[in-house]
Amino acid sequence: MRMKRLAAVAAVAVLALGVAACGSESETPGTPSGESPLVGKATAGTLKFGVKADQPGLGLQTGSTYEGFDIEIAKIIAKGLGGDPAKNTYVTTVSANREPFIQSGQVDIVVATYTINDDRKKKVNFAGPYYTAGQDLLVPTASAITGPDDLAGKKVCSVAGSTPAKRIKEKYPQAQLQEFDAYSKCVEALANGTVDAVTTDDIILAGYASQAQYAGKFKVVGKPFSSEPYGIGLKLEDKAGCTKINDILKASVADGSYKAAWDATLGKSGTPAPTLDVSKLTNCPA
Amino acid sequence: MDVFSDPANLQLYIDGFLMILKLTGASSLLALVLGLLLAACRVAPVPVLRAFGAGWVHLFRNTPLTLVILFCYFGLYSAVGVEFSEDIHVNNYWLAVVGLSAYTAAFVCEAIRSGINTVPLGQAEAARALGLTFTQNLRLIILPQAMRSVVAPLGSILIALTKNATIAGVIGVAEASNAMKGLIEARGDQTIAIFLVFALTFVALLVPVGYGFTALANRLMVRR
Hints:
The complex is a heterodimer.
Chain A: H1 2-23, H2 37-44, E1 48-51, E2 54-55, E3 59-62, E4 65-67, H3 69-80, E5 89-92, H4 98-104, E6 109-115, H5 118-121, E7 124-133, E8 135-140, E9 155-159, H6 163-171, E10 176-180, H7 183-191, E11 197-201, H8 202-209, E12 218-220, E13 228-235, H9 239-254, H10 257-264
Parallel strand pairs in A: 1-5, 1-6, 9-10, 9-11
Antiparallel strand pairs in A: 2-3, 3-4, 6-13, 7-13, 8-11, 8-12
Helix pairs in contact in A: 3-10
Chain B: H1 7-42, H2 47-61, H3 65-80, H4 88-118, H5 121-129, H6 134-149, H7 151-164, H8 176-186, H9 191-220
């Protein structure tokens, strides 16, 4: 009798978990004859963008407003799709929930320092890349560290579970890796001298270095040791939308709005606007 | 499920849970000892000790564990300079153990104090009439009876501690939840499967602990 009851409880638990798992499966909305569903949403002003909320210069949430380069790119896309950028809704995403958010339709488009890679391409569609970042080091201005090879025995900080942290473990195992759950804690530890360097994509580091309270204290080493093409994530089925966004990006380079987006955000740290190579906008499946 | 067929990922998963066990092992011993001392303080005839015990319990029982652990890193280590080891991983492990123990000791103390309250007052009075000192009274008469009645609550605290050990991840201890984050980042296409495996491993670890403590509590119960 006792066993039967246990078995029943176990069955219920498994069912509940099963249902929870189903909840996040994507409902595939039909893409009517070549037109992306994004265009309709843009016209109606209901586009939802997934962005980062804790990365200065890229996607930073202050109160209820978001600002940064990723946000400016989102505005360019909304405008290009025929919508009003002021009507964009921004939703905070973190690295771990970007694919589920796209699949379940909680957001329509993700512009959130989203590196294009093959595993992710199985789940979502990437337009872009709109920027190519590289892993770099942020160190105190007076530091003698000039590149990843100087890290032996040094304490270097990154976010737990992130790609930069993994790369340090694999390629530079002689460095002592301190992991936190957010880059802001790493920068805090760098400011009080507990760690010797912070590592992640150069563009993110530049954002922290340009924050007012750290002005003049840190420098980005400037020797990137990886290549991280940032893409714009959208639903796997939405091939038309992917091509459309690439066209919008091409147009934004031609009319200068891409450069304006950079100058208004990350450009403030003194880094000149990068040249977007439009010939590389080839991620969309044919 | 093919995430775990990759030996590197499997190793990450195993290491994560071994770290949980190591954190729980050290912290539970320290918390038990510290909790006993605090409980003794809280029933002591010396007002300063009573105030110390009460202060500790109120401070740590009502502070989020994440804050306690972060304080161990940014306060104890960064600012005050308490360093257990040159090796960053060993150092972070012990900082986390300090935080977990200090926090859990508050709960252990309160459980033991409630156990002390189940011992009839006449026992303590009789012992005192026989000329036993406070410590003798506690050690020989009160605690042996009190501990028997708090086995089940201590089991619950141990279960909570095991799960709380995942919070050590905020200062970079490579425990299970950090391993899970790493796997999800690497294989975002299998989030649900990874999540289920980690959740069910915790359940599989802790269900026997719960049954074990219930059985032990029944055997040791003082029948009055």
